[in-house]
Amino acid sequence: MKILMVASEFGSFAKTGGLADAVYGLSKALSNKNHEVAVVLPRYYIIDKRELKDFGFAFKVNMGVLGDISFGVFEKRLSKNLRLWFVDYELFFGRKGLYDDENGNPYTDNGIRFVFLSKAALEVAKRLNFKPDIVHAHDWHAAFVNALIKTKYKDDSFFKDTSSVLTIHNLQHQGLFDASLMNVMDIGWQHFNPFEFEALGMVNLLKGGIKFSDAISTVSRRYAEEIQTPQFGFGLDEHLKAHSCRLFGIINGVDYELWNPSTDRYIPKNYDMDSLENKIDSKRKLQEFFSLEKSDKPLIGFIGRLYEQKGIQLIIEAFDRMMQMNLEFVLLGSGKKWAEEFFKEKAEQYKGKFGCFIGYSEELAHLIEAGSDMFLMPSAFEPCGLNQIYSLRYGTIPIVHAVGGLVDTVENFDAQNEKGTGFVFYSFDTSALLNTLKWALDIYNDKYTFANLQRRAMSVRFDWQTQSEKYIKLYEFAKIYRSLKDG
Ligand code: ADP
Ligand code: GLC
To answer: How far, in Å, from the CA of 26 to the mean position of ligand 2?
Structure first.
């Protein structure tokens, strides 16, 4: 198959979160299976042009009331079947942030920027004669591509055999913009209605994308169910329900070439199931990094964006009581200023027991995965989540709130039947969190039981090799759906 991916993030080229890992992992796995994959991405300011091949000619796209825009395209070939096409247009993408300015405010023209990316994607494919069997759009940034195929490009013979798939990585972000964006999208105001692009008098790019895609997926089965309820639907639950016959959940894979304690180059001593005793070296190094006491108390780790999604308000509320427990705690993350300030202050107050690093560090993330005994992930909602999957592989027992991908990847510990891979709490409140933590600490003290729990966790796999097969099935579904629907 020829697959055209369209996304705003990819691997280490442009990353703010798990979206980048997922698009990269899936593209790589599909291309390894001999599918031809091209990924269209913005050429952000941070992506060095000198590393890329310039096609050297101008591409053109019509942006409705804004008129024509000509832009460049750079290519990076990652392997025989995998190439990246970077859409280069300084005015839109020549900025420091991907989505936000230095103060953390979204750029006011984000709607225009990503409508441009969507339109450019199809023009680039055409001009470079890449006739896709599948267009696979990721999140709201690219969702409009699938609507373009069914509207503006409906009669374009180049795309006559193209089916479309949309993956929702996070329903919280939908791409809501002033209705005037319709004049830039330029597919006709008849599509500005509550069943397509209109929501609360505004344009909702994700909503329209859902309507026009041949198949829709999200990144776990549980999340696919949750988003059809008012609690997790962010206002789109009814809309998703209306399209649920083509909505599926496929859990992400992770890259075990990067996240594997037996080969990880960021940790002092590699280990695996049969050499678990070597994990202590990472723990000691982590304790040293954060100037914690080099005690044998259980060490709890946290890595993530400091936003409400990740349940940081629970951690904040429970913090002082957590500090009364027999544990050590380390946190790596950045995000909301008030949360960053909170954790910095607490690190002063609880020196030797709690350490935090506010910022982004790949290296430290690996050390935390390896050096912690347990990993805390109390997300309010979590479409998939990657860190709990890394934690499993590192024998770092996840403590998670029962939502979304956390449910699909972590099985609650069951002492009687010697089953389970982590600790799960079911209500989103501090007492549930603290009680579960207490339970986890008790089990930690039972060395034999805890080591067995670690071994079970370490044997779990969510690899892209397997998960990409499910996407291939999804692509087949999209093709069939389109042929039935379009006659
Ligand atoms: P989300 O995409 O919602 O942020 P995921 O769990 O899917 O959550 O993915 C987060 C990814 O970003 C993981 O690869 C994680 O290791 C990484 N990450 C998040 N925050 C940091 C940080 N401060 N430093 C290093 N890596 C981080
Ligand atoms: C989003 C979600 C996260 C998921 C990631 C990759 O950022 O918040 O749960 O793992 O996308 O699909």
So the answer is: 13
